[in-house]
Recover the amino acids of this structure.
């Protein structure tokens, strides 16, 4: 069922108009279309950006000294907030996703490969804020469980705000679900979406 | 103050006319007074932190002119019916901590009852009349150094909306509370040509003032400009203060945004800053040494963000 909501944000200064819209979008019944009245340029620009970031198609028309912003295409079927096409990110704001798909790095000698991977994961923080997601799949999930040689490091990354994901199917396959000590359990849909959103995906293993 | 006759005398070295950071009055051949005042409503929830930020912000104008702040007076508007007195006490304590660190004496103040809490200081500093560092004076080829990351206005807007993470609140608070004293001392050792502190007009607004009527252009390497965490993200989803849009409208005609540069960056570059960093010009050969000194002194986000060039017109080229 299509829902429509009208909001009056006149007389409000930033960030109140955006917060009014945000509340409306977080209400029990999420509107599929929305009209917002604003009376200043900053509010018009900010509300437009906010609705676009939530997947709406946005138009605004002048109404005397005010503007009416109309937004359509929200709610079910809208792309995820971050899936909206956006300009190329500036340097320093790239999103790098690292996928660890094994317990060793490279091929040739697995003992060496394991050492290399441990060293790699300990050094990973040098990427700085561009490191956006760290995902463990297949044998890689063994690094997220009790006894992992990099558990402390991974837990420290997580405390510092890095989102670490471990493949749930893989944990189950190795019967390690109960032993996971770091990261959130994830599924293939999350992984596919994250790969799409990342500016760069690095796969190891 | 258009149309009003501004009282002045021949000892006023820098007055209202040049949009400089503070006024300067010549006392003798060796001594001039720098005077400045600033106050505002709370921008963070923690009153002690608010006090520190307000003091660092008020002192900054003196540092930006190359002077040494000496005395300060509190300015307080407080709703005693609405807020506990402890809030005021904590705010003043925060301000005093910063004054102590800066070696500045608090010699008085004035408070009134008001509906909305406001705090700030008037500050007086000393400078040699011939060593005043103005915001005009950039030379062709000068490199521009910025000592604090940008985005306090955007982050503060997001804080009002309850969206900023604790980590971001902590980062922005520390940046705003940081004194510009050390940066000013290091800057003084590099044959500096001009300086300002980044406040209400944002980086590009202040740069526009620095090149106004000089005929010079600046080229900003946007990848080098330090930004507070999340500032760009919050700008993208609509948490830009009205002042940033006003700054952009006022000075936007000077901006030449090169292809491939994220236009949202402009909002961060025009974002009004509270207690922003120093922005100064120094010779290219001094840049590495100055940056090393700044970083060694703990000013780790300092960066060389661009240079003064001849583009045949005044322009802010964002590359």
């Amino acid at each position: 069922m299509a829902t429509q909501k009208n909001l009056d944000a006149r007389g409000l200064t930033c960030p109140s108009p955006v917060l009014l819209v945000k509340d409306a979008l977080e209400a029990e019944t999420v509107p599929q279309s929305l009209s917002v009245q604003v009376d200043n340029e900053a509010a018009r620009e900010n509300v437009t950006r906010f609705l676009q970031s939530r997947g709406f198609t946005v138009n605004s028309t002048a109404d005397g000294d005010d503007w009416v912003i109309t937004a359509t295409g929200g709610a079910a079927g809208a792309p995820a907030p971050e899936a909206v096409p956006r300009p190329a990110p500036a340097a320093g704001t790239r999103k790098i996703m690292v996928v660890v798909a094994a317990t060793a790095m490279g091929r040739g000698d697995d003992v060496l490969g394991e050492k290399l991977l441990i060293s790699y994961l300990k050094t990973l923080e040098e990427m700085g804020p561009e490191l956006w997601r760290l995902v463990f799949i297949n044998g890689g999930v063994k690094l997220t469980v009790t006894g992992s040689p990099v558990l402390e490091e991974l837990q420290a990354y997580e405390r510092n705000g890095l989102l670490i994901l471990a493949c749930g199917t893989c944990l189950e396959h190795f019967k390690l679900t109960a032993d996971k000590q770091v990261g959130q359990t994830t599924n293939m849909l999350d992984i596919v979406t994250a790969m799409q959103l990342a500016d760069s995906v690095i796969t190891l293993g | 103050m258009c149309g009003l006759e501004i009282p002045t005398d021949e000892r006023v070295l820098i007055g209202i006319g040049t949009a400089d950071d503070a006024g300067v009055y010549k006392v003798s051949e060796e001594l001039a007074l720098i005077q400045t005042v600033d106050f505002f409503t709370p921008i963070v929830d923690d009153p002690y932190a608010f006090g520190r930020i307000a003091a660092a912000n008020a002192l900054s104008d003196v540092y930006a002119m190359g002077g040494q702040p000496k005395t300060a007076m509190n300015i307080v508007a407080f709703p005693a019916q609405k807020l506990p007195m402890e809030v005021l006490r904590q705010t003043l304590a925060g301000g005093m901590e910063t004054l102590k660190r800066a070696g500045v004496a608090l010699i008085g103040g004035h408070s009134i009852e008001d509906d909305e809490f406001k705090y700030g200081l008037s500050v007086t500093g000393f400078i040699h009349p011939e060593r005043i560092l103005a915001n005009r004076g950039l030379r062709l080829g000068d490199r521009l150094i910025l000592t604090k990351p940008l985005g306090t206005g955007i982050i503060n807007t997001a804080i009002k909306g309850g969206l900023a993470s604790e980590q971001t609140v902590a980062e922005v608070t520390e940046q705003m509370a940081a004194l510009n004293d050390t940066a000013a001392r290091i800057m003084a050792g590099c044959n500096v040509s001009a300086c300002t502190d980044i406040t209400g007009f944002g980086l590009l607004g202040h740069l526009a003032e620095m090149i106004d009527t000089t005929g010079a252009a600046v080229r900003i390497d946007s990848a080098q400009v330090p930004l507070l965490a999340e500032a760009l993200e919050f700008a993208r989803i609509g948490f830009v203060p009205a002042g940033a849009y006003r700054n952009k409208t006022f000075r936007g005609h000077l901006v030449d945004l090169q292809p491939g540069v994220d236009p949202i960056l402009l909002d961060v570059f025009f974002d009004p800053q509270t207690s922003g960093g120093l922005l100064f010009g120094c010779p290219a050969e001094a840049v590495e040494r100055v940056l090393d000194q700044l970083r060694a002194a703990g000013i780790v986000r300092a960066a060389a963000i661009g240079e003064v060039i001849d583009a045949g017109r005044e322009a802010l080229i964002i590359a």
Remarks:
- Residues 76-89 of chain A have pLDDT under 50 and may be disordered.
- The CA atoms of residues 30 and 75 of chain A lie 6 Å apart.
- The longest helix of chain A spans residues 110-123.
- The radius of gyration of chain A is 22 Å.
